[in-house]
Write a structure and sequence with these properties.
alpha/beta, binds zinc ion, two-stranded antiparallel ribbon, TIM Barrel, binds ligand PBG, 11 helices
Amino acid sequence: MSAFPTRRLRRLRYNPTLRDMLAEVRVGVDDLVAPIFVKPGENVTHPIASMPGQLQFSPDTALAAAGRWAAKGIRAVLLFGVVERKDSTGSQAWADDAPVQTLTRLLKAELPELLVITDTCLCEYTDHGHCGLLVETSPGKVDVENDETLTLLGRAAVSQARAGADMVAPSAMMDGQVAAVRQALDTEGFSRTGILGYAVKFASGMYGPFREAAENPPQSGDRRSYQMDYRTAGQVLAEVQADIDEGADIIMVKPAATYLDVIAQVRRQFDAPLAAYHVSGEYAQIKAAAAAGWLDERTAAMEITTAIKRAGADIIITYFAEQIADWLGE
Ligand code: PBG
Ligand code: ZN
């Protein structure tokens, strides 16, 4: 046997052109969806402390931001509403003049090519902060009621579709939510409006910063009676199958970086288009470490976003969208 290794994998790595030629996965701006938090009012650009670089907007400033992003090649946004007027049913979710609906109309009028996806849930609009209606299940105990919530999610989706949303994204994790939203949309004549189903959404500690951004923390309890338990990978198949059977056009796994195994599993088992949501806490981790000088932000953000794509996601919802567009454009 020779004293030298005969298998030379490093010969594939010396030359940057060869490295690029051999790259199997590349993130492109076409893959990205940029989230937007929109409040009532005008001229609002309120920094979200736990998500450095992210802002709460009013419809006018959100439109301007989306225009800047579109000029950099970003082609899709996901809208979340932030409202002061909250009540027990979350009625601002289906108010035609609520911030999400107002911004949707503006975006479709001014940037008609931009794909507008609206989050369809109640937690941003309920005074108790849960994703559905609360009922008393035993004396002194409340929980989110499933089937009555479905009606309200349908109403919210119809209001968003009426404003011009290209896709709605039911995220409440109620059983049957995709079917209910599909039926409500079809009944009202919105058969062309698509559904991005949050098929696999885990009860996650990674949503912390989002709750500041969307001002929607549960006032009591947590979301574990409706979001998935991260110890139960066995329910992934059932959740995805249910969303597909109910008519979801695209399915989603969320969070993303913490669940690359789940993304890969869904990719292997289903043909449906797959989105993954790199969530607020996953973003904040990189931002905080970069701010401390502990890692290089660009390298880390590109690596994790590429990993999400390599795991099998077609679409990546990420707060890094604008920065990635800048980096790719350099
Ligand atoms: C709730 C919702 C959550 C996110 C989006 N919609 C999480 C939650 O409060 O349970 C989280 C997104 C993020 O963390 O970036 N329907
Ligand atoms: Zn919710």
